[in-house]
Amino acid sequence: MSEQDDNALLTRRALLEGSAASALLLTTGMPLRSEAAAADEVSFAVHTNVVTLRINAHDSTLNLDSRTTLLDVLRHQLGLTGVKKGCDHGQCGACTVLVNGRRINACLTLAVMHENDEITTIEGLASGERLHPLQSAFIAHDGFQCGYCTPGQICSAAGMLEEARRGWPSHATHNLCAANIPLTDEEIRERMSGNLCRCAAYPNIVKAIAAAAHEARQ
């Protein structure tokens, strides 16, 4: 056997011996690191904050883990289950709520960031027994099937109508200087593109939003 083969053999032998030693440490429970290294390990404490959230015109004071999303607070701590958890990555729009009148994805924001903000969920859109015009329009035009995405669709549409009223253009807007942007079907589809419907009820969703927009103009 050549000197090169001996070196290769030794290398393989060293690898096998090292593997056996590692297996022995694991099975006997012997420490794999020094006590000094273990002492230097950082322990991460849970940080909580007392936060008052104004949701649907009512104040709720909560002691929150600072990492908790607004979505989880609304659903699991306040019982506002109209806010849906879909993708949990800000891609489907099922968790859309209004914060100070603007639509956001509740799964992408931390609850502690919204103290003193006005938060509105689907439960807060109606006035007592009187439905919001968008809610009535979705019923009249059959703008939902399974209904899972509907709360997010309606909250998003409410924010979208206000954006159009203020003259905020979209990628589908032809006249960027228009004071009052006409909400064509193309405009509505573009502005609502962040809200997905797995039942594909899009044609009726567009009709419902267009009807509500027309009623608002009247």
From TrEMBL:
* Stated name of the protein: 2Fe-2S iron-sulfur cluster binding domain-containing protein
Q: Say if the entry is tagged with keyword Oxidoreductase.
A: yes
PANTHER family (alphabetical):
OXIDOREDUCTASE WITH IRON-SULFUR SUBUNIT, OXIDOREDUCTASE, IRON-SULPHUR BINDING SUBUNIT-RELATED-RELATED
Every 2Fe-2S ferredoxin-type domain range: 49-125
Q: Which CDD domains match?
A: fer2 (cd00207)
Keyword Oxidoreductase found: yes
Record-annotated membrane-spanning stretches: none
Q: Which UniProt keywords are listed?
A: Iron, Metal-binding, Oxidoreductase
- Identify the domain of life: Bacteria
